[in-house]
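Data availability (excerpt). The following record was deposited with the supplementary files.
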Amino acid sequence: MESSYFESRTRLLHEALKQYLNFGKEQPAVLYKAMNYAIFSGGKRLRPILFFATYEMLKQSIEIEQLKPLLPIAIALEMVHTASLIHDDLPALDNSPIRRGVKSCHLKYDPATAILAGDALLTKAFEMISLYDNKEIGVQIVQLLCNSISTRGMIGGQTVDLLSAKKQVLPLSVLEYIHKKKTGALLEASVKIACACAQAEPTVTQMLSIYAINLGLAYQIIDDLLDDDGDYELLGKEQYEDIRNNRTTYPLIIGHDKAIKMAEKLLDDSYRIIKNMKSNQKLVEFIKLIQDRLP
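Predicted structure:
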């Protein structure tokens, strides 16, 4: 993505996160430290930036100052995502020692603190949404976010992923379901929430939802490929995690080359959805951002 755009939006988000996660001398200090550790240990901020980019496209480009009222929502999206990563990394789930290039939260602190830090960030996310000025749209945002992270979304996908790890053979349809829920649901929520804030037409919302789902699935396929190739730098976590946890991956089911073609097709489909939309440059750049991760 155009570096100046990404950097300016990331900087805006970062300053707001520092403001709302500044707990001073409040107790319990260790919990607040764990929350801050997880949030500020890096990350691409894809979900809040996608939220901004979608909103700006729908409004056909706006000044960065006009994004400030949307910051509580952007922060909420990042908090939910970070909470999910904290919990995913736990020994009882993916058992990942590295996240975003540093120790996972449960190793920096301990599993109990990590669980509570994830819970606290998730709760704080909905507190942030309550700060949004338009309360009617705020209710819609809560509904959209709850749906994306519920048993019908991210948590459901994680559950099926855990259950599937015990199976020798996994149908491709089940693997797609897992990734559409685990990765795609929150990306889809990011664009649907932007559509709600911009009061977009239902048909536009539906098209952008498919765009985001395709992006999420392509991103996960590429993650599978990178894990298979052992690319630590791009993954930001320990290599061969899927093999260690007996996870079925796209390369394992359909082969390395076909997995690349599938990811490329999903990204092409995403482009076709938005190619005729006005002011779509930033959403096109999102596609290129993911495409650049292809091994």
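Summary of structural features: The longest helix spans residues 202-229.
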